[in-house]
Amino acid sequence: MTKPSLSPRTLQAAEVAFWLVLASGLFLLPDHLTLLGQILVFGLFAVSLDIALGYAGILTVGHAAFFGAGAYTAGLLAKHGWGEPFSGLLLAALVSLALGYLLSAFVVRGANLTRLMITIGVCLLLTELVNRLTGITGGSDGLQGMDVWPVLGLFEFDLFGKTAFVYSLVMVLAAFLLVRLVLRSPFGLALRGIHDSRKRMLAIGCPVDARLRLAYAFSAAVAGYSGALLAQTTQFVGIESIGFNRSAEILIILVLGGTGRLYGGLIGAIVYMFVHDWFADMNPQYWMFWLGLFLIAVVLLGRGGIMGMLARAFKIRGA
After folding, report:
1. pLDDT digit string (tens) for 299-309?
2. Which DSSP string corresponds to 94-147?
3. DSSP string covering 217-260, please?
4. What angle (nearest 5°) sits at the alpha carbon of residue 172, between those of residues 218 and 210?
């Protein structure tokens, strides 16, 4: 007997429950608020990559370029006298948006191998640029001396991470709702069509390259926004934020959660970072072996990542 699919009302209740569980971390895990805040940030970063990879079908492995650009934008603003958090996020997103749209002219028109080489090359170039500009970026020591102002002029970023966690939760939720609105709009449906059949979309008159460029720029803006959020809540920007290793890590998180699924990046970040932290505590010397074994098992046993498994188990359709 076929199991009936979940109703829209049930899915909405599950969504609300998901965010309430995240919010409950403030009370249930008060000693791990820094980790929870980073999970939120990297979850949104993975969602930004999913816009390009899972929805638009643009193969990229250098998305940390936009994450780092946003982080350094917010960090430099806070260091040089403008630490207002909301405007810092907005400016960081705009800088990454401009950078993404500029690079999209090269990324969109190439084949998959060309896209890989371009995105890797840009990531490496920006990493070396940040490393060279020691007087501005701090180089390999990282950008320090940031002064982020209290949120709304009332809530200072405390040592316990409470303000940072609540601020991250609210801003990640706001960005996630915006991403969902865009992906469920006619623009988002066009991206799905291009991902499934580029030739068919061209045949019906869809401006494919223009749509892909906008999608890539939008994904870059969300990545920059998440990078700025990490910079503001930690008040530090390390060179690794723009490095290739960060790009590889976020790709692993997305594949683990499931590409082309709205919650794939968030679920992947939760599982990856908790498992990462658990294995590191359990076996500090060989934790990477167990982490790698876990990732291989999930990919081999669960087609489509964790969200793919959940979708098949509960017959959830779409994003």
Report:
1. 777 777 888 78
2. HHHHHHHHHHHHHHTTS-HHHHHHHHHHHHHHHHHHHHH-HHHH-GGG-B----
3. HHHHHHHHHHHHHHHHHHT-B-GGGGSHHHHHHHHHHHHHH-TT
4. 10
pLDDT tens-digit readout, 76-113: 999 988 889 999 999 999 999 999 999 998 888 777 77
Backbone angles phi, psi at 36, to 5 degrees: -65, -40
Which of 140-149, 204-213, 288-297 has the lowest average pLDDT?
Answer: 288-297
**Strand, helix or coil at 151?**
strand
Distance (Å, whole) CA 180 – CA 54? 14
Which among 302, 22, 34 is positioned nearest to 165, based on CA atoms? 34
| Nearest of 92, 77, 75, 57 to residue 175 by alpha carbon | 92
C-beta of residue 242 within 8 angstroms of C-beta of residue 125: no
The one-letter amino acid at 203: A
Residue 115: inside a domain: yes
Structural domain contains residue 2:
no
Across 65-92, b (16+ Cβ under 10 Å) vs e yields: bbbbbbbbbbbbbbbeeebbbeebbebb
CA atoms within 13 A on the CB side of 139: 4
Give the structural domain span for 280.
Answer: 8-314
Say what the pLDDT of residue 4 is. 55
Look up residue 94 and give its two tokens.
């705009």
Residue 151: how many CB atoms within 10 A of its CB? 19
- Report which of 46, 64, 57 is spatially closest to residue 107, judged by C-alpha positions: 57
CATH number at residue 291: 1.10.3470
Helix (H) or strand (E) run with residue 56 in it: none
Q: How confident is the model at residue 8 (pLDDT cuts 50, 70, 90)?
A: confident
Instruction: Give the tokens for residue 221.
Output: 């803006």
Structural domain contains residue 96:
yes
Summarize pLDDT for 229-243 with one digit per residue, the tens. 999 999 999 898 998
Q: Is residue 3 part of a domain?
A: no
Number of domains, the chain: 1
